[in-house]
């Protein structure tokens, strides 16, 4: 990681443009995978299944090749072993009505690790302005030449160098983790997916005012969808200290609420809603060849579906501002803390955050009451929403059978949950079970 040097300035590619705020969509790690999988799984017992699978499948675009793709496509059923997926958000504004602004940047870089025993999932957000040595981009056209890379700079410049494969190669080099799956989503995908979900409830602790994205929210709970959700996720000036690090912790308020909604009975027992989410996600994503298959997505989704909320953890790659030379305004990695994080993930250990939620968010003071209300609502919905495929007609024979005494099954002791690794205090984040609120920032503070 530390052996690379910067190219001469004449050879550097354009990097982050600060004249306009760069977007950061949710790139929801369960939307594209879990929703797609469950949309198929939940309708599989009905005559709609074949149509749904065919329609979702033809939405998938041509894939891209990664260096570490698996050779075998998994069959339906939980995928075996651990999974590493890189989810990338680009600033492309195609099909949104928004004006394009130069080259495409990878402004969101989120690595999702699912443990081999499928009991935990950790999503690591890498700040767009964090400075790293770039990997040599894979040779995409077979001419024996790298497509770019090999220099040091902000990570969001990598997409312009060599596309999604080059971003994957750089994150592999940065983290030491092999990444066989990757997905790229743009502005249009963020908007359509937020609509398909039906909006996400976010808590705002202090007034958010951001004239750059048009985000103006008073304290309280807001249900955000479509372009409003996109603007909330893009805002930097309106939250925390106005930095990209604050924006990430603000986004995690949205992401944790999103995961709770996706895992609630109301969402997971609604095949129509899940189908819409799956189609919206896949219609606006570029996938690696390894992920460009419904069977693969179902297998990964099934590995995610039973992970408890407190074991779904969002963290920021640890960093601080104030670099040297041309990168004084960028984010520098705190390498020792990052090493501890990725050592835990490579050892398949679940992690817990000890460094707080970050400068853009805070714990919801009404968290316990809100959690209790959500759990009660989910239980009520689950009790009244048994899928038709699980309902069986009652016959006299089945009624008689149900009246017969049955042996009481011997309870099986659940395996103890593995101990969580307490991450260094330099690493900020939260679990999906943590109810948090955005810390707003007014125009007067900017």
Structure description:
This protein has about 450 residues and is an alpha+beta fold. It has one domain (about 15-380, about 420-445): LCP protein (Aminopeptidase). About 35% of the residues lie in helices and about 15% in strands. The protein has twelve helices and 19 strands. It has a seven-stranded mixed beta sheet with strand order 11-6-1-2-3-12-18, with helices on both faces. It has a four-stranded mixed beta sheet with strand order 10-7-19-16. The chain has a two-stranded antiparallel ribbon with strand order 4-5. Helix 1 packs across helix 8, helix 1 (about 30-45) packs across helix 9 and helix 4 runs antiparallel to helix 8 (about 270-285). It is globular, with a radius of gyration of 22 Å.
Question: How would you concisely characterize the structure shown here?
Answer:
This protein is an alpha+beta fold and 446 residues long. It has a single domain (16-378, 420-445), classed as Aminopeptidase (3-Layer(aba) Sandwich).
């Amino acid at each position: 990681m530390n052996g690379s040097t910067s190219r001469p300035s004449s050879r550097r590619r354009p990097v982050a443009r600060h004249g306009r705020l760069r977007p950061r969509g949710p790139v929801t790690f369960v939307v594209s995978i879990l929703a797609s999988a469950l949309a198929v799984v939940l309708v599989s017992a009905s005559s709609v299944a074949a149509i749904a699978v065919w329609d979702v499948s033809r939405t998938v675009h041509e894939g891209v090749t990664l260096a570490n793709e698996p050779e075998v496509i998994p069959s339906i059923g939980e995928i075996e072993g651990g999974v590493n997926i890189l989810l990338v958000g680009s600033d492309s504004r195609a099909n949104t009505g928004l004006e394009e602004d130069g080259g495409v940047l990878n402004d969101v870089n989120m690595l999702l690790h699912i443990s081999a025993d499928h009991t935990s999932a950790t999503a690591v957000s890498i700040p767009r302005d964090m400075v790293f040595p770039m990997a040599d981009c894979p040779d995409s056209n077979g001419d024996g030449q790298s497509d770019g890379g090999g220099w040091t700079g902000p990570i969001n410049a990598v997409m312009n160098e060599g596309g999604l494969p080059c971003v994957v190669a750089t994150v592999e080099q940065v983290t030491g983790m092999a990444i066989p799956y990757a997905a790229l989503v743009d502005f249009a995908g963020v908007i359509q997916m937020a609509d398909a979900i039906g909006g996400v409830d976010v808590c705002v602790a202090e007034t958010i005012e951001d004239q750059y994205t048009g985000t103006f929210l008073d304290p309280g709970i807001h249900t955000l969808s479509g372009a409003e959700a996109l603007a909330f996720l893009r805002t930097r000036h309106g939250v925390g200290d106005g930095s990209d690090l604050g924006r990430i912790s603000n986004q995690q308020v949205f992401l944790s609420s999103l995961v709770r909604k996706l895992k609630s009975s109301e969402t997971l027992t609604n095949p129509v809603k899940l189908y819409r989410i799956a189609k919206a996600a896949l219609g606006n994503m570029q996938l690696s060849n390894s992920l460009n298959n419904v069977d693969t997505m179902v297998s990964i989704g099934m590995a995610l579906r039973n992970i408890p909320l407190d074991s779904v953890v969002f963290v920021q790659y640890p960093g601080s501002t104030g670099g040297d030379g041309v990168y004084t305004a960028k984010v520098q990695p705190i390498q020792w803390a990052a090493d501890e994080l990725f050592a835990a993930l490579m050892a398949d250990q679940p992690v817990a955050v000890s460094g707080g939620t970050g400068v853009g968010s805070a714990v919801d003071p009404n968290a316990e009451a809100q959690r209790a209300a959500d759990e009660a609502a989910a239980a009520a919905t689950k009790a009244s929403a048994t899928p038709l495929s699980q309902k069986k007609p009652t016959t006299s024979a089945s009624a008689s059978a149900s009246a017969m005494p049955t042996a009481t099954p011997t309870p099986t002791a659940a395996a103890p949950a593995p101990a969580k690794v307490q991450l260094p205090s330099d690493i900020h984040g939260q679990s999906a079970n943590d109810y948090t609120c955005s810390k707003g920032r007014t125009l007067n503070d900017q």
